[in-house]
Design a protein that fits this description.
Layout (H helix, E strand, L loop, with lengths): L3 H6 L27 E12 L2 E12 L5 E11 L5 E13 L9 E11 L6 E13 L2 E6 L2 E5 L8 E10 L6 E12 L2 E2 L6 E13 L6 E11 L7 E10 L1
């Protein structure tokens, strides 16, 4: 814990729910389990003053090898009329680069193609490292994707964001954690601090086996507090996965 907590503290000044995509309020581990199938749902509800917003993401994933997991998302968001509309279709791939404990931290790589479903919105491609370090019962997971926009109305440049989780492994069913998300903007053209998005807050997560089968339910819930004027004052995000 004495090693991991100072590392996590360095992350505080940096993405939460600016564009408010449910799929982005997720933290990826570099670990891949061979031939695992997964159905996942992610949802959030956020507020700033009297205005509120919500979004949802549903996905299906499969790991054809011991080092590669591929996943397809359908992402929905709430438009100004308060109706739920299709936002993006996303294709993600996670590659496990090291075996557990092989190096100072477990390492992976994530890539993502995001196709906008609303006219006039740009598409994007993301690529970045996934890192995870465990010391005893303390685990730090860190995602550092870079993003490039293309298509209609895109802004050139390389965007930077992060997602991080610090977890105390209490037991398989319930473990407390802290999650943080941040997006300072395009590298070399950082936005002003008050226009960046920053959020952090408590979370808990766990895993439940389903009957006598090999299936399991993995859940997590987080309550995030906005740390800048551009971020919602609060966001509640929930995630549910069925792995088999």
């Amino acid at each position: 814990m004495n090693i991991i907590f100072p590392l996590f503290a360095l992350l505080l000044p940096a993405r939460c729910a600016s564009a408010q995509e449910a799929s982005e309020l997720k933290i990826y581990s570099p670990a891949v389990e061979y031939q695992e199938k997964e159905l996942e749902y992610v949802g959030f509800f956020s507020g700033k003053g009297a205005s509120h917003q919500q979004g949802h993401a549903m996905s299906a994933a499969y790991s054809p090898t011991s080092y590669w997991r591929t996943e397809v998302y359908e992402v929905l968001h709430q438009d100004p009329s308060m109706a739920m509309v299709a936002d993006t279709i996303e294709w993600e791939n996670v590659f496990q680069l090291t075996n557990s404990g092989q190096l100072w931290a477990d390492a992976g790589l994530i890539s993502e193609f995001e196709i906008a479903q609303q006219a006039g919105n740009p598409h994007s491609f993301k690529l970045g490292p996934l890192l995870e370090k465990q010391v005893g019962s303390e685990v730090l997971t860190l995602d550092l994707p870079l993003e490039w926009k293309f298509g209609p109305n895109y802004v050139p440049g390389t965007g930077f964001s992060y997602a991080a989780r610090y977890t105390h492994l209490l037991n398989p069913y319930f473990s407390p954690a802290v999650e943080a998300f941040g997006e300072p903007g395009i590298i070399g053209r950082w936005q002003r601090a008050d226009t960046q998005t920053h959020s952090i807050g408590p979370a808990f997560l766990g895993t439940w086996r389903v009957g006598t089968t090999k299936g399991k339910l993995v859940y997590s819930v987080a309550g995030l507090r906005g740390l800048s004027t551009a971020t919602p004052d609060w966001t509640v995000v929930w995630r549910l996965e069925y792995e088999f």
